[in-house]
Amino acid sequence: MIDVSIEGKKYLLPENWQEISKNDLLIISDLFTHFYIPSDFLKYALIGFLGIKKYLIQYNGQLAMAKGLYRLFPFPSVTRRGVSRGKVKVFLQEDLLVLSQMLTWIHSSSSTSSNTLTRNLLPRITVRRGLWPPLHLYGPADFIKDVIGIEYAKADAAFLAFCSTADPLYLNDLVGILYRRKKWYWRIEKLFSDKVNSVRMNYTDLQYMQNSHNAFSLSLQIKYAVFLFFQGCRNDLLFRYPYVFSSDGAEHPDSTGWAGVFRALTNENIVDINKVMELPIHTILFDLNEKIRFNKQNTKPADNG
């Protein structure tokens, strides 16, 4: 964390994606959905991060600190009645710009690859359904350790489709794939198994379609936060399994290439393909990464000869 001192008070700013809180993630997500230019993006991110701390306010569009009794009242109501001189400390835009440069890890020229968020800060989201009881949907574990192959392949397709079109409908698909109802028997299952058991119900296409429909009522801020989490975990997979995702590798998993990945592990056996698709995505990629690495090491001497 980055220590920042303002008017003699110390504040903490996250230094990377792994240090952000749920509130920080929602602030970042909201800013991305408003398409700010990079300089304004970082400025508003800084205001947002500090704004969740006490006494920090926005005054005439600038970051400021309330003093005296003004700290005790809602500031918008105070401004309508006038603010006495010297009761608000407005920070210079130049100082604000310098502070905001500490947050360049959020929005850089390579923001797609710089996202390293692998902690699910939204393990549960609530869908409001009018007169019906609210629906609680549960997401993947950190590092998407409990996401299976077929689930990841479909989520990856929705992710890439949104990246290429920016159509929010694909975010509904992403949420519908990754978030599901909770298993009522999860605690019992956890006691009698040493596997990585997901708190969510098992993936089915029917649940995916139902949850995608329910995701329509979620705010874009929430759905984009799910997108950022999946993006960070996807970048982590690219780093962990370089032979699978390398530009010169034999496999290129993308929105249309996951079927080839599953076939590569089963020698075209349809029964085995169905079994592989039910395995955790980390298990699938680890096995394939080792096979490609082994094949490359064995072919190098022949190439040199």
Descriptive report:
The chain is mainly alpha-helical. It has two domains: 2-113, no CATH class; 124-295, no CATH class. 49% of the residues lie in helices and 11% in strands. It has helices at 22-32, 38-51, 75-80, 93-100, 111-114, 149-165, 169-178, 186-191, 205-214, 220-240, 242-245, 258-264, 270-277, 281-304, and strands at 2-6, 9-13, 56-59, 62-66, 88-90, 124-129, 132-138. The strands form three sheets. Strands 3-4-5 form a three-stranded antiparallel sheet, with helices on one face. The protein has a two-stranded antiparallel sheet with strand order 1-2. Strands 6-7 form a two-stranded antiparallel sheet. β1 and β2 (9-13) form a beta hairpin. α1 packs antiparallel against α2, α1 packs across α10 (220-240) and α6 (149-165) packs antiparallel against α7. Mean pLDDT is 80; it is low at 248-252.
String of helices and strands: EEHHEEHEHHEEHHHHHHHHH
Across the major sheet, the strand order is 3-4-5
Number of strands: 7
The amount of beta strand, in percent, is 5-15%
What's the number of structural domains?
2
Sheet of most strands: 3 strands, antiparallel
Question: What is the end-to-end distance?
Answer: 53 Å
Overview in brief:
With 305 residues, this protein is mainly alpha-helical. It has helices at residues 22-32, 38-51, 75-80, 93-100, 111-114, 149-165, 169-178, 186-191, 205-214, 220-240, 242-245, 258-264, 270-277, 281-304, and strands at 2-6, 9-13, 56-59, 62-66, 88-90, 124-129, 132-138.
